[in-house]
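STRUCTURE:
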């Protein structure tokens, strides 16, 4: 073949290095800025959660002493179980949309991201989950799709469970008479949860975001299991409130079922009041209205405040434990490699 002169050969050998040295580090700078923004947002979220905890302590502290240690401890455990169920409802969906990520990584993305709800505007929680998923090696499209589907499933489960309490709430409290109208959404939500509808939505969304679509459709089993986990979360939250209410009144099994519906209804109201940090105030309105006939207005307000405190502590605790578990999982299993084009 033709010979290459020494000068030309030298130029050819040095060209790649020169190109690397002179290429603008735009991608590296952008990645650094995104990382700083992510950690900055997480820091703001944690500060907001701790501030909320501190600001409510004066109201809650005296009432805590009136509740037995056993009831308080079991109530807190029920909250944690409910949070785990909600996490698994999301985990089932995100695992079905690609290579399974494992509960350690999944819990970190979901639980740490959920702390964003303590900022005004629920959108922060979803944005934080998407960015945490991206850092863990998941495509943003995949996390976004799982989060939207989980939200729809949580709404369907909440509407089903709240049927245990909404009729009585609407009848006894004129300010909540609008709640039954929410059931007009139930047929729409259930239609949207049909596997064929979800599969079409996934394929359209992944195509729009220029991501390789999943290699299989969303299955009916996946939707059913996710819905079962979501229902489990509301049963746990209702049990949590039932255990608190039993501290000052004889609340039987009928009251337990009603409080499951109350907690589900309060979560729906929190979603509607998305502009409030974690639905603060809106959720308590429903809880106090339902508890007042059972335990009296004063105790009802106190238990609603104690419930908020337990939820905040559980959110922070489970998020911290999940983050630690994810670090251990990464050291043991290595970086997740599942979604192409992410690393």
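SEQUENCE:
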């Amino acid at each position: 073949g033709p010979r290459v002169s020494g000068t030309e050969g030298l130029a050819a050998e040095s060209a790649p290095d020169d190109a690397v040295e002179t290429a603008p580090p735009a991608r590296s700078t952008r990645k650094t800025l995104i990382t700083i923004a992510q950690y900055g947002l997480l820091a703001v979220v944690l500060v907001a959660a701790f501030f909320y905890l501190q600001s409510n302590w004066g109201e809650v502290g005296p009432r805590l002493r009136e509740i037995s240690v056993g009831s308080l401890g079991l109530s807190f455990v029920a909250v944690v179980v409910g949070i785990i169920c909600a996490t698994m409802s999301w985990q089932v969906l995100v695992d079905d949309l690609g290579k399974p990520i494992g509960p350690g990584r999944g819990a970190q993305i979901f639980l740490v991201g959920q702390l964003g709800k303590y900022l005004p505007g629920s959108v922060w929680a979803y944005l934080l989950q998407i960015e945490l998923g991206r850092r863990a090696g998941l495509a943003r499209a995949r996390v976004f799709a799982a989060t939207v589907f989980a939200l729809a499933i949580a709404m369907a489960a909440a509407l089903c469970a709240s049927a245990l309490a909404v009729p009585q709430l609407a009848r006894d409290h004129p300010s909540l008479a609008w709640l039954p109208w929410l059931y007009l959404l139930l047929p729409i939500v259930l239609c949207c949860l049909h596997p064929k509808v979800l599969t079409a939505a996934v394929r359209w969304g992944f195509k729009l975001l220029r991501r390789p679509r999943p290699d299989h459709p969303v299955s009916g089993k996946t939707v059913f299991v996710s819905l079962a986990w979501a229902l489990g979360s509301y049963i746990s939250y209702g049990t949590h409130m039932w255990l608190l209410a039993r501290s000052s009144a004889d609340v039987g099994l009928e009251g337990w079922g009603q409080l499951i519906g109350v907690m589900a209804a309060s979560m729906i109201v929190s979603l509607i009041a998305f502009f409030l940090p974690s639905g603060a105030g809106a959720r308590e309105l429903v809880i106090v209205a339902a508890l007042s006939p059972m335990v009296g207005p004063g105790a009802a307000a106190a238990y609603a405040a104690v419930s908020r405190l337990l939820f905040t502590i559980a959110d922070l605790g489970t998020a911290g434990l999940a983050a630690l578990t994810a670090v251990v999982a990464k050291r043991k299993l290595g970086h997740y490699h599942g979604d192409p084009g992410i690393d």
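REMARK: DSSP finds 14 helices and no strands in the chain.
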